[in-house]
Write a structure and sequence with these properties.
The chain has 139 residues and is mostly helical. It has one domain. It has three helices and no strands. Helix 1 packs antiparallel against helix 2 and helix 2 crosses helix 3. 18% of the residues are buried. The model has no long low-confidence stretch (mean pLDDT 83). It is a multi-pass membrane protein.
Length: 139
């Protein structure tokens, strides 16, 4: 067989057959190849809530152990630590989730208003979220 450049002497195959110039997945008609800001908003909000809950729980554990360090290991101490973990976890999840919601909402609104997807939308959404969060007296 002339004109062929096999991959190896044991595999007599034309490498041109192995080149894939098309995407490896099928998209519905009219769908974008990348996810839009609105689709990513759900992932962002959920991820921030879960991250906030985890960080808050760790902070609650730290605070609970610190506040009860003079107590002996007992049921009341365990309950107090658990209350602190739960309270801090919920507080942090709420805070981070709210921030993610604001950021995502601003991002979607700015993108739809401008009609463009670029870094300016992200910068503007982050700036507006920070300004609104700071204006409520939070540090």
């Amino acid at each position: 067989v002339t004109g062929m450049s096999p991959l190896s002497p044991y595999l007599n195959l034309d490498p041109r057959y192995l080149v894939q110039d098309t995407d490896e997945f099928i998209l519905p008609t009219g769908a974008n190849k990348t996810r839009g800001r609105f689709e990513l908003a759900f992932f962002t909000i959920g991820g921030c809530c879960m991250t906030g809950a985890a960080l808050g729980a760790l902070n609650g554990l730290r605070l609970g152990l610190k506040e009860t360090q003079n107590m002996a290991w007992s049921k009341p101490r365990n309950v107090q630590i658990l209350n602190m973990v739960t309270r801090q976890g919920a507080l942090w999840a709420n805070t981070l989730g709210s921030l993610a919601l604001l950021y995502s909402a601003f991002g979607v609104i700015i993108e739809k208003t401008r009609g463009a997807e670029d870094d300016l939308n992200t910068i503007a959404a982050g700036t507006l979220t920070g300004m609104l969060y700071k204006s409520t007296g939070r540090v």
